[in-house]
Fold:
Amino acid sequence: MGLYQSIVVWLHVIDQLLSNLITLTNDASPWLLLGLLIAGLMHAWLPADLLKKHLSKGKMAIVKAAFIGAPLPLCSCGVIPVATELKRSGASNSATSSFLVATPETGVDSITVSYAMLGPIFAIYRPIAAISSAIITGFLVLTDRTHHHKNSEKVTTSACCGNKTAAPELKKSCCSSTPPPPTPWQKTLSGVKYAATKLIDDLIVWLVIGLCFATLIKTFVPESFLLSYGSGLPAMLLIIAISIPMYICATASTPIAAGFIMAGISPGTALVFMMAGPATNISTLGVIKREMGTGVLTKYLLGVAVSAILFGTGLDLLLTWQDINIAEQMSHSHQVVSPILAYSCSIILMLLAIKPVRKLFLKA
Structure:
């Protein structure tokens, strides 16, 4: 191969990498911004005592977290800031893990797309599998006895009010009057500002790493490589191995899974992709390790992988037993988010992630 041909090949590869990176960023950014907005509003409006009461400890917290997260229209990137805020507000590791699995694996939007593209069986079976997988993972994390100390954001008191040794006259000057409570509008704005500054700064590094990994996989791992394995445990294990670093949301995974099924992969193996893909990616795993520790991360991965294989195998057995052909129930896909909205959200996200640019607009 001559120099000219080598240059052409490399230019083509670079073009594919950039194209895939832009596509994945556009796919993620609307849901990520939605997740940041929800997390910011939770930070401003949701009392920490309420979360501690329902999600702080016990086995029921795991079940509650799974059912709370399942209907939310958040993908594997959008759920990260929400789950981070849950954890920092007092939710237990097991409940947070359950929420992290249930939320991206299913949602109202993905259920409707599943019904449209894969038929009623997938639309029913998928959320049941997602909620069950979340509960299984939560109970696995519950068995983790390691202690992980994280310097999460805490409510601080002023130097004089919180200092018992401060001079009496100093304490009187700053603690004698209580500032008026913020108005609803002020609380909402503070939540949005928190999401656009603190949360983005905490998450952006892992989000960028995750999108880059996903871009490499999408560019260099052809679908034919997956299709050559067909179905069964080896195919499911391969799907899980590839899905772990990949970013893919539940809604976007549906047309890909439909293409896999049409090309010859079993519905159960496609379900493994639809479960493991949204629930695991480099961004999510990095945040879990940082917020909850390596022990929780290991149990999280084990729970997601085992659950995906169990429910994928169960789906194949069910379809064989009932002699149901999923391919006959499938229809054409349609675009969920308009390109203009996707590009706009990507631009907003990039502007917020660049601190010097962000300071021009938010003064933060």
Summary: Residues 19-146+185-362 form one domain. The radius of gyration is 23 Å.
